[in-house]
Amino acid sequence: MPEPSAQRPVATADTAARLLAVIDGLAAESRPGAEVRATLDSALESDLGLDSLARVELISRIEDRFQVRLPENTLSRAETAGDLLDALQIAGASVRGGRETHRVQAPIGRVQGTPASAHTLVDMLEWHVQMHPERMHVQFYDTPEHTEQLTYAQLKAAAVAISVGLARGGLDRGQSVAIMLPSCLEFFQCYYGILLAGGVPVPLYPPARLSQIEDHLRRQAGILDSCLAPILITVQEAKLVARFLRAEVASLREVLTPQELVSQHAGSLPPAPTPDDVAFIQYTSGSTGNPKGVVLTHKNLLANIRAWGTAIRLDSSDVTVSWLPLYHDMGLIGTWLGSLYYACPLVLMSPLDFLARPERWLWAIHTHRGTVTAAPNFAYELCLRRLHDDVLQGLDLSSWRLAANGAEPVSPNTIEHFSTRFAKYGFRPETMAPVYGLAECTVGLAIPPLGRRPIIDHVRRDLFLESGRAIPAEDDDPEPLRFVACGHALPGHEIRIVNDEGREVPDRTVGHLEFRGPSATSGYLRNPEETRKLVRGNWLASGDLAYVANGDIYLTSRAKDVIIRGGRNIYPYELEEAVGQLQGVRKGCVAVFGASDPAAGTERLVVVAETRERAPETLAALRKQINQLAMELVGTPTDDIVLAPAQSVLKTSSGKIRRAATRDLYTRGAIGAAGLGARLQMARLVWISFTPGLRRVARCIAAYGFALRVYAAFFGLAPLAWLGTAMAPARGWSLTGALARAMLRLAGYRLSVLGVANLPRGSACIVVSNHCSYMDGAVLLAAIPRPFGFVAKSELQRYVFARVFLRGLRARFVERFDVERSVEDSAKLVRHAKEGQSLLFFPEGTLTRAPGLMEFRIGAFQVASHAGLPVVPVTITGTRSALRDGGWFPQPGPLAVVISPPIAPEGSDWKAALRLRDAARAEILRQCGEPDLQR
């Protein structure tokens, strides 16, 4: 849309006046008592207080008043009343002319079988291309009246062309490629093109409005920096904006459109991916100060797709209808990839199209005889509030057999009212399925039995808040708490509820929900700290609180959202929903959270509610009502009520309340602080684009200074270590260990060591460690206090410096290439171990610059099992980033060594060695936070 100062097409004074009257009418309703008069230069949000949902209503009123259909991008691009006038003039000739007709389309038929033999997403697509290449896969509504179709063969051909373009652009295997595209057919093509090129897709949500550009780019920069993406694929209109990201993300080389990537040249593709290769990185919603990228492999995705399909009996006769954004796991995996696997036609529309006219979603189900959908709770609520019977005449929802409701707390009121309201259009109560999932389990984790009506549990409020017990309420209980059953774990997956000590709790007791199964992630990308919080042995922590009753899972809250006040647990959801119902409060724009109160030793109960009210007496009445609700619902008054202007309560890209981020604003006194306008944001971004050179120089100086410091420490102390081991080998380990610790300190590295007590005292053992960097030896010398014999490759004996040093450390050399000598060396190692010498192995045998734990060789574990010695897994983290293979430029960062409990051999045969290997590798994989590269 043009800026307010830009020249506009000439409009009649009458048209402009009628438009402004419509805007004034909605603004008056939204802000009672406020004296607001719109002009063509009035900003819809900052001047008139009309947020996204208010603009949805405004567009609907304009279309009704002028009997036109505004352009589809009006919702996202109109910033001022003048922009709406421009859109109205463009649409002036297209009179709506009555109710739309929706002709039912014939089904496209069934297919035999599924790609059950597929091990990767690439295998899955290839199976469909071979079996039915011309079968329609996706039908996308690019306009309300027109659809584009994509067959399996077209998807494969376009993906190959894009993959060749990526390969020609220098994409290395395993590198991330960010996709910042709206819903479109090119998204699917780019996703598979990245996979075929050996890359890893990282979907990002595209910018919605110019006024949000600064926050949007700040979020994306954090994610791009986390995944080290060298390439960003986006639309032409966003390229100018996206270029600013390169000033903040050192790894980003190219910002390209799908059309620019398509290569007409033939080219060879890299080797096909394996089941354990990463197929998708999903960044979770919430604070982006420390982005959490969930690493999902082909194996994870296929396991979840198959488990979900089994649970809902999905097959090729189903039709999936969706408006969900493709950058979100529910839209990407739950709707698209699930439809692809089972050959279900996918009917897709854009999220903005749904928000503008929710009836289109329901009419698409009618037209295409849709059977399966998924959406957050707010989508069903929006249909309830926005849709009138006059736009639903003739609607038939009888084909709809599964309406998955998830991705945010499921409201009992919504599922009850939706089933009742749309029953006359053929919607059956058992179609509604409250589900539960999370990105860390790919997408889906629990679902009710197919064909069962939703179950709502009524529990006693007092006992629940005081003790966390979900005791059923009596029928005449006037104020029970209500929770919705989300069913059982998907096939092959498990869920348990534990207390703070990690012990399982009885039924109807609230605790922490943990899960495990083939869909579970190995951790967060390059984020071992958050991965350690996630992994609990062989279980993963969901971060949710829940209880089990009659085998069903009932979600009660996010653990971090629970407010502990005076020994009571206060759950924010119900109070937020109740406050949102008050006249004058913006529904869905309420945050309830706890703020630390050190003086009282507890948390303060804070309510932040958005309102457009300004009159002091009205605000005072609202505060009184909110306080009364708090007393009624949670049994305690609020400590603070903040009535804030629009856009004060922060939300994620999918519309969830960001309570922690809003609490941070509250504690800083920044609730409702005015942000920079779009022009100032753009000016700041332009300035940023001119300053990266200066920052690069500063970073370069700092990097070279750090490298100089590292090498000064190394070359200053390494000769002393060499002389010490050569002249006094009996004290070589202790002397070299002390020098290694000094070298790391002088170099500026911080080394943390956990689990030293796990090393057996007074007896020999076999230590096995992952191998990340040439620094690993020095780090182990610094971390392990007792002497071990390094098991080193025999070719190191060719170098005098290495040979003298390693022999001084009692290293044992083994042959890798001569089979007979290798067997002899292994027998010698067993003898040394039986004689009481502890040995240290790197069972991966080599190292790579790319993160990931490779396959373990069996030698160390055969030595342990034959000698009857325990194996101690040791995990090194941080050294790969500090000094990568193939490079000699050290980088700063924390280093850590975790020594896990010893694992005793269970026998001396081959199978015992294999069990030792698998157990030790699983422990190191759990601790290291890197992908599993075992083939």
Describe the fold and architecture.
The structure is a single chain. The chain is of the alpha/beta class and about 950 residues long. The chain has 5 domains: about 15-90, ACP-like (Non-ribosomal Peptide Synthetase Peptidyl Carrier Protein, Chain A); about 120-355, ANL, N-terminal domain (Rossmann fold); about 455-560, Luciferase, Domain 3 (Luciferase, domain 3); about 585-665, 2-Layer Sandwich (GMP Synthetase, Chain A, domain 3), CATH 3.30.300.30; about 705-930, Glycerol-3-phosphate (1)-acyltransferase (3-Layer(aba) Sandwich). About 40% of the residues lie in helices and about 20% in strands. The protein is built from 30 helices and 34 strands. The strands form 10 sheets. It has a 7-stranded mixed beta sheet, with helices on both faces. Strand 12, helix 16 and strand 13 (about 430-435) form a beta-alpha-beta unit. Helix 1 crosses helix 2 (about 50-65), helix 15 packs across helix 16 and helix 19 runs antiparallel to helix 20 (about 615-635).
